[in-house]
Each structure stands twice: as structure tokens, then as C-alpha cells.
């Protein structure tokens, strides 16, 4: 079964644009669980332009589903005297996802080079696992990087799926009306990467630009994926459909 974890960063972006507490990020997290989400994801960045460190702390006692905190372990909050690693260890979520974001980046745009960063990631993964936190490494669909991630000792990898979403959209909207082979081409590197992860006994997550357009096909081709983390598209859909209906539609893609 592939679980749906809702990334609520964009809700915090709207709140922060106006100040105050509307929309209420904490209530939104609770409501997502009430409407069927099987996980909540946040990605606090040092500049706190969306989810703040204080939000991440406050959400934990309010939800019963899995809590996933994403971020760069080198990140340091501008509002608190400690960094991402200290925040995660204080919260002790079900899962931490290590993402190699550069400071100020608009959104996550690359996976880890696990070969180049092997020693550093080994130390970080060990530190979190000693706290009983499951660790996932955000990674490109590159078998070599996945094999190294397994040697590093991570529990899971999260496939960075922007390229799949882009190529799927191009194929699905092609004027050539021959989308099937192109859709298979779009997913092929991710199926291969997912098989490598499975062969390495790694759990598998996926995220970035997954949407109602492409999620069902992704799930059909990689049904052993443990979790998808979806934020931007899901929150955008909720503007039209409402969050309850939107979550139900995303869950239907995973049946």
C-alpha cells in the first residue's frame, strides 16, 4: 500500500503572505488527517518563508499519522539558535527526509550525490537512527546513487520525480496522439531505480510534481512505493475542489 503524505508548506506560504494566523496551519494538518491523509510532511527552511520551526514543533502532538520532516541537515533557522538536526531530534518524527537544498533555493531541484557526500551522510543517518527516526534520502533516479545510499545505511530513498512529471505531461498532451510508448519512456528510469532500491532492501518514497494527472500511472508502474509526498499540486487542486475532496481523489489514484 502506498501512503499519501500531504506536504502543507504552501498553506504556510499563504499565511505568511498576510501575517496573522489565517489559514491556520496547525488546524489544516489536523484536518488533512481527518480527511484521510496517511501522513503530514513539512519542509522548514532556514529563512522560514513557509513552514516555521515553531510550526514543525507544534504539529507533532496534534496528529496521529506519520510525521515526515524534510530538509537540509546543514540548515540553521534564522529565528532559533539551533539547526535542522537539532529540530528533528527534538521532535523525533516518524521519518526525516534529507534534502540537499541550497540556501534560498525556490524549491528542491536535485537529489543527493551520495558518492561525493558518503561520509557526511553516513554520520547524519547514524545520528538520526540512534534517535529511532526512520531516515530517507532524497535522490535522483540513478542506480549508482541508490546503491551508495544503501551502503550509507539509510532506511529509504525518495525518488525526485520532477523529470517524470515533466515528461509524462509532454507525452499525455502530445498532438501525435501516441502517448502510451512515451508515457512508458517517462516512467522507465524510475521503474529501474525503484527496482534497484528494492534489490538493495531499501524502502521507497517519491515526491516532487506528482499530481492528479500523473500519480495513478506512477502507482500502477511502481506499486511497491511506500509513500508519496505531495504538496504544491495537491494544495493547488484544493483551491478548486476543497481539501477533503482533493485528498479523496489523490487517495483514489493510489488504489
The CATH topology comes to TIM Barrel
Second CATH tier, the architecture: Alpha-Beta Barrel
Shape verdict: globular
Mean pLDDT level: 93
Report the sheet with the most strands, covering strand number, pairing sense and barrel closure: 8 strands, parallel, barrel
| CA distance, first residue to last residue | 8 Å
Based on helices, strands and strand pairing, what is the structural class?
A: alpha/beta
* Spans where pLDDT lies below 50 across 5 or more residues: none
Total beta strand runs: 8
CATH superfamily: Aldolase class I
Write a brief caption for the model.
The chain is α/β, with parallel strands linked by helices. The protein has eleven helices and eight strands. Helices cover 46% and strands 15% of the residues.
Please provide a written account of the structure.
The protein has one domain: Alpha-Beta Barrel (TIM Barrel). By secondary structure, it is an alpha/beta fold. The chain has helices at residues 9-18, 25-34, 53-59, 84-91, 118-129, 143-152, 162-172, 179-199, 215-221, 232-241, 243-253, and strands spanning 3-7, 39-42, 66-71, 95-98, 134-139, 156-160, 203-207, 227-230. The protein contains eleven helices and eight strands. The termini are close together.
Write the SSE topology.
Layout: E1 3-7, H1 9-18, H2 25-34, E2 39-42, H3 53-59, E3 66-71, H4 84-91, E4 95-98, H5 118-129, E5 134-139, H6 143-152, E6 156-160, H7 162-172, H8 179-199, E7 203-207, H9 215-221, E8 227-230, H10 232-241, H11 243-253
Parallel strand pairs: 1-2, 1-8, 2-3, 3-4, 4-5, 5-6, 6-7, 7-8
Helix pairs in contact: 6-8, 7-8, 10-11
Amino acid at each position: 500500500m502506498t501512503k499519501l503524505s500531504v506536504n502543507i508548506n504552501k498553506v504556510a506560504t499563504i499565511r505568511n503572505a498576510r501575517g496573522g494566523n489565517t489559514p491556520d496551519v496547525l488546524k489544516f494538518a489536523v484536518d488533512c488527517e481527518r480527511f484521510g491523509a496517511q501522513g503530514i510532511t513539512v519542509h522548514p527552511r532556514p529563512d522560514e518563508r513557509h513552514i516555521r520551526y515553531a510550526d514543525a514543533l507544534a504539529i507533532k502532538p496534534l496528529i496521529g499519522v506519520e510525521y515526515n520532516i524534510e530538509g537540509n541537515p546543514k540548515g540553521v533557522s534564522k529565528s532559533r539558535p539551533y539547526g535542522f538536526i537539532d529540530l528533528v531530534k527534538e521532535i523525533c518524527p516518524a521519518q526525516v527526509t534529507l534534502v540537499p537544498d541550497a540556501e534560498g533555493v525556490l524549491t528542491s531541484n536535485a537529489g543527493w550525490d551520495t558518492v561525493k557526500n558518503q561520509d557526511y551522510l553516513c554520520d547524519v543517518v547514524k545520528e538520526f537512527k540512534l534517535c529511532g527516526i526512520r531516515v530517507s534520502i532524497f535522490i535522483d533516479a540513478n542506480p549508482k546513487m541508490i546503491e551508495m545510499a544503501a551502503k550509507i545505511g539509510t532506511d529509504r530513498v525518495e525518488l525526485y520525480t520532477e523529470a517524470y512529471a515533466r515528461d509524462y505531461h509532454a507525452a499525455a498532451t502530445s498532438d501525435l496522439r501516441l502517448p502510451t510508448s512515451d508515457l512508458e519512456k517517462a516512467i522507465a528510469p524510475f521503474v529501474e531505480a525503484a527496482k534497484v532500491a528494492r534489490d538493495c532492501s531499501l524502502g521507497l518514497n517519491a515526491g516532487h510534481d506528482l499530481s492528479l494527472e500523473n500519480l495513478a500511472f506512477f502507482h500502477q508502474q511502481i506499486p511497491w512505493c511506500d509513500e508519496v509526498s505531495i504538496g504544491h499540486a495537491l494544495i493547488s487542486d484544493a483551491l478548486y475542489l476543497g481539501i477533503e475532496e482533493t485528498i479523496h481523489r489523490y487517495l483514489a489514484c493510489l488504489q
